[in-house]
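Q: What changes when adenosine monophosphate is included in the input?
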Amino acid sequence: MRVVLLGPPGCGKGTQAELVAANYRIAHISTGELLRAEAAAGTDLGRQAQAVMASGQLVSDAIVLGMIEHRLTAPDTDNGFLLDGFPRTLVQAESLDRLLDKLQQPLSAVVQLDVDDGELVRRLLSRGRADDSEITIRRRLGVYEAQTKPLSDYYRRQAKLHAVNGVGDIDAIWGRVFAALGGLDKVDANH
Ligand code: AMP
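A: The predicted holo structure follows.
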């Protein structure tokens, strides 16, 4: 199971990503988390990324692709992976396809969580992360529209896109995500 979870900031990607990863026992890979860990550790890369993240812009494709390539060759991805917050640009999506081609591990599906802008701003403002001020939120939503939205068409053309309504309670949304993934190959500890 190799999945991309697509959707704007505040759509609930992180929460659903954890549910998918736990239920399918696959690695949860969040580029935002990886970048925040680099920043917290005070590495060169982290220092470069920190200012960009605080501004609500995207970190360079080169930095993110380097991190992903490294991460996708770790043994915990053998059973599959879920990508959360990556890819975010067409360059990243095309590079990911090339990398997975080389690894002979094509994506199984792309799940897109749809949430309207008003609800996104409301959720982000209540989250209180360092990059969640109103100005930064607006900028991140703008960046999403301009740079990440085109990925919907990219994956639709590959017949991999599954759009899911991301409004409602966590369990209801998880039910929709699970249905979109076809309920296939689920490792269920309870049965
Ligand atoms: P997130 O935790 O996914 O909301 O990401 C937080 C911030 O990290 C974003 O606003 C970007 O500045 C940066 N970031 C995370 N993932 C990527 C990516 N795939 N490409 C570029 N920048 C990213």
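Observations recorded in class: Confidence is low (pLDDT under 50) at residues 187-191.
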